[in-house]
Every structure is written in C-alpha cells, then in structure tokens.
Amino acid sequence: MVVVDLTHPLDATVPMFPGLPGPEVVEYRSRDEMAAAYAEGTSFVVHRYCFVGNSGTYLDSPFHRYADGVDLAGLPLGRVADLPGLVVDVRWRVARGQLAVGPERFAGLELAGRAVLVCTGWDRFWGSDRYLAANPHLTAEAAALLVERGAALVGIDSWNVDDVADLARPVHSLLLRAGIPIVENLRDLARLVGQRFRFHAAPIPVRAGSAVPVRAYAVLSEAAH
Q1: What does the alpha-carbon distance between residue 174 and residue 167 come to, in Å, rounded to a whole number?
Q2: What SS3 class is residue 62?
Q3: What does the pLDDT look like over 113-169, one tens digit per residue?
Q4: How far apart are CA 107 and CA 105, in angstroms?
Q5: Phi/psi of residue 50, each to 5°?
Q6: Of residues 208, 203, 194, the one with CA closest to residue 57
Q7: Cys-Cys link to 201, which of 28, 49, 191, 216 (CB 3.0-4.6 A)?
Q8: What is the tens place of the pLDDT at every residue in 93-110?
Q9: How far is CA 191 from CA 2, 23, 89, 185, 220, in A?
C-alpha cells in the first residue's frame, strides 16, 4: 500500500486569504508545569491551537456558504473518506496562463461518486507571494457539470476553487448547494496522475462548523488506467 500525503503542514507561515489571521500554536502547559502532577520522570506538554477554519489544506462544508447547509458535524463520512479518486491534470494549460478550467476538461470522464481533484501545479508556489496571485480555478460551467454528473467531492491545489476576482463565488455556490464538499490548498496531486486511488479528507465533526483544516491523503491501489 502506498499513501500519498496531499496536505501542507499547518503553522504560522501558511499562506492565508488576505485579511485572515494565520494559525497560532501556543504552549498552554509546559512540560515543567505538568511534571508536578505526575510521577517523577513523567511529564507532558499541552498546546492550544488557534486558527480560522480556512487555514492550510482545508475542507469547506455547505454551511460555509449557506445558513441552511450541512455543517462539518453533519457531513456524511461517505462524502469525505475512502472515495474513489480522479485527477484532472491541467498543468499544461496553467503553464500557458490559462487559469480558468472549463467543463471540457471533464468531458467523457466518470465523475459520479468520485473525489474529483484538479491538478494545476500551483502548489509549487506555496510559501511565495505568487501563490496568492490570480489563481487557477474552475468556471461556473465546470461546477454545473460536476454537480450534474454526481461528483462526491471537489479539490484543487490552488488557494481557491473560484476565480478570486469573482465575488459571486459561483463554483462554491453551485457545489456547496448540491452538498459537494470542497478541499482547497492540496499539494502533490501530480503524483496521482494516471493512478487508481482512494481519497480521504475527513474533517473534525464540529457542530455549526463551516470549514476546517484536514489531513488529506490518497491510498494508491492499482497502476495507471
């Protein structure tokens, strides 16, 4: 079994949507402080983590967009874990400056019940100023096709599945209204091109939670199809 980690490590330096604060990791109780409560030679450290849900590699639930949408606790595990995966490779288009990914890129593909992951190659800019520049994204027409064809989850290796210049956020709106979770800021999708794999990105089941960082990964099974 080969497991491919698709998650950027989370710390204070991760690129954040402009205006959102970065994660904080605070030592809430030090090892020295905790030692007094245990037998000699035994101690622990306790951390407190503070971050907005849309930090690092994260998953959006429908509640992120819609007040009546399913929250993180209500998402069925079947929507976020052990999904048959499909990678759509658009790196060559992005390299030519074609950032919009339209429905033609999904034509003829088996999408129903799958985690559809869009490999743009944008993860190579992670940690640089360019990462948060104009981003590779899906079009509204592509999102409509993914809904119509029954995709279970949609992910991308850039910082937004929508064109950040479009404040209507049509891709988020269409996918999340249909109950399709979105995972953004993935990495290393190129390792999955042409592979059979199962995708996992189960979130913490936070009641009234809208989005949260996840440990996204793929389990490879058979060779290229």
Answers
A1: 14
A2: helix
A3: 999 999 999 999 999 999 999 999 999 999 999 999 999 999 999 999 999 999 999
A4: 6
A5: -130, 120
A6: 203
A7: 216
A8: 999 999 999 999 999 999
A9: 11, 28, 11, 15, 10
The residue type at 38? Y
Tokens 């959102």 — which residue?
A: 20
Contact (CB, 8 A) for 58 and 187: no
Q: How far is CA 70 from CA 75, 82, 217, in A?
A: 6, 20, 23
Please report where in the chains the tokens 């995708």 appear, as a residue.
Answer: 199
Q: Domains in the chain, ordered, with CATH? A: 2-13+53-220 (3.50.30.50), 17-51 (no CATH)
pTM of the predicted model, to two decimals? Answer: 0.95
Residue 178: closest CA among 145, 156, 203? 145
d(CA 96, CA 222): 32
- The C-alpha angle with vertex 150 and arms to 149 and 153, in degrees rounded to 5, equals 125
Work out the number of other CB atoms within 10 angstroms of the CB of residue 168: 10
Q: Quick one: how far is CA 208 from the chain centroid?
A: 19
